[in-house]
Design goal:
single chain; Glucose Oxidase, domain 1; Rossmann fold; 2 domains; seven-stranded mixed barrel; 19 strands; globular
């Protein structure tokens, strides 16, 4: 058995945690967040919304089912680092192709195990998300603290440029398509999806409902979208601060003006808020989990949802903006009361902060794709 190597994690408040290294041998600086999901570590590690962040898993043990080529939301891991209480270097699952540590090492992602993740989670909950630095190659705690404190962080930065596609392409599926039930006629409609760091499961569910999906880079202008003649526009999830994406908010505003059906998820939800003249703000420690309760304001139905975001739309800002497009809040978090969904009253536009496509997480909210297709069907019928 290979001898364990030391690793050290340092938070910007000066806290130092010594543990065992796995994954790549390197140094990394990031924003540290915690995720309370009990399962789905591979989907979490490949979620592009985590770009710039290290993920601390509150579940005490991960890695026992290894990794495979299907449970991915991007081609390679997107997290900056992985922090766990215990990792299994032996795996047992009929779908597994590799062990977690080896897979992370192959893609340059460091990890640390053998530390008190519960204590760190309590620190993050009480003080808020922090910058951190991790070394799996022997860098001193003093140097790591300096690195963490000098790092500029994520506020105001455009992280989407690091994860969006380089050019437009048509989604033709991947090896995980067979896990999604086909429930719509093929070529039912044409959806243009803005790739702000889109999770593949969004694409899979659009295609399963019969959409032909054209994926476009985040910098695509509204005019370029109009030339594609979409029946609807999907605004995907993505990493970082929505305030760092004024070009995207401007494109969304122009698309809304055209009355094209629009559905936004996560970052897409926040960009709709900005397009309406509102503003966003940082949450204390974000929402990162597969078990957050959200209530539909109208029906009072409660969904258990998958979430991954550090910013929220400020509801009062939408009222103060005096936008010409009247909107209403459709969903609220039952944990902290933050806005989890919006819709425009006189335009075919709606959005949610959580992830109805799950991956990982419950499927409670999958039906939230249905109104998008209904809006497109009605628009096509009027043509």
């Amino acid at each position: 058995m290979e001898a364990t190597q030391p690793a050290v994690l340092v938070l910007e408040n000066g806290s130092v945690y010594h543990g065992e290294a796995f994954g790549a041998r390197t140094d990394r600086v990031f924003e540290l967040v915690f995720n309370t999901s009990m399962t789905g570590y591979q989907e979490i590690c490949t979620d592009p919304s985590y770009r710039g962040q290290g993920v601390l898993f509150t579940v005490p043990h991960i890695g026992n089912v290894g990794v495979n080529l299907e449970d991915i939301e991007a081609r390679v891991p997107q997290v900056e680092a992985v922090v766990v209480r215990s990792i299994s270097h032996q795996y047992s699952n009929w779908r597994a192709d590799d062990e977690l540590g080896g897979w992370l090492a192959e893609h340059g992602v460091p990890g640390i195990s053998g530390i008190d993740t519960r204590a760190i989670t309590r620190v993050l909950r009480s003080t808020g998300t922090m910058k951190a630095a991790l070394s799996t190659q022997g860098t001193s705690p003093a140097d790591l603290l300096k690195m963490a404190r000098e790092w500029s962080g994520l506020d105001g930065r455009d992280m989407v440029t690091e994860v969006t596609c380089a050019e437009a392409f048509e989604w033709t599926g991947d090896q995980a398509d067979h896990w999604i039930q086909q429930n719509g006629p093929k070529d039912r409609c044409h959806v243009v999806l803005y790739d702000f760091g889109a999770k593949r499961n969004i694409l899979r569910h659009l295609a399963a409902r019969g959409a032909r999906v054209t994926v476009v880079p985040a910098c695509t202008t509204a005019e370029q979208v109009f030339e594609l003649h979409p029946d609807g526009v999907m605004l995907s999830n993505g990493p970082g601060d929505p305030a760092g994406l004024p070009y995207a908010a401007e494109a969304v505003r122009k698309i809304i003006e055209r009355s094209i059906p629009v559905f936004g998820i996560c970052l897409g939800h926040q960009l709709i808020g900005l397009a309406l003249g509102g503003r966003t703000t940082r949450l204390k420690f974000g929402h990162h989990s597969g078990n957050h309760p959200v209530q539909d304001v109208l029906t009072k139905k409660v969904y258990v949802t998958a979430q991954n975001h550090n910013y929220m739309v400020v509801p009062e800002s939408l009222q103060a903006a005096g936008t010409e497009y009247e909107s209403e809040i459709t969903h609220l978090s039952l944990n902290d009361g933050s806005v989890e969904g919006l819709r425009l009253i006189h335009k075919p536009v709606y959005c949610v902060q959580f992830h109805p496509e799950a991956a990982p997480g419950p499927h409670d909210a999958l039906d939230l794709f249905t109104p998008f297709f209904s809006m497109m069907d009605r628009a096509r019928a009027r043509e």
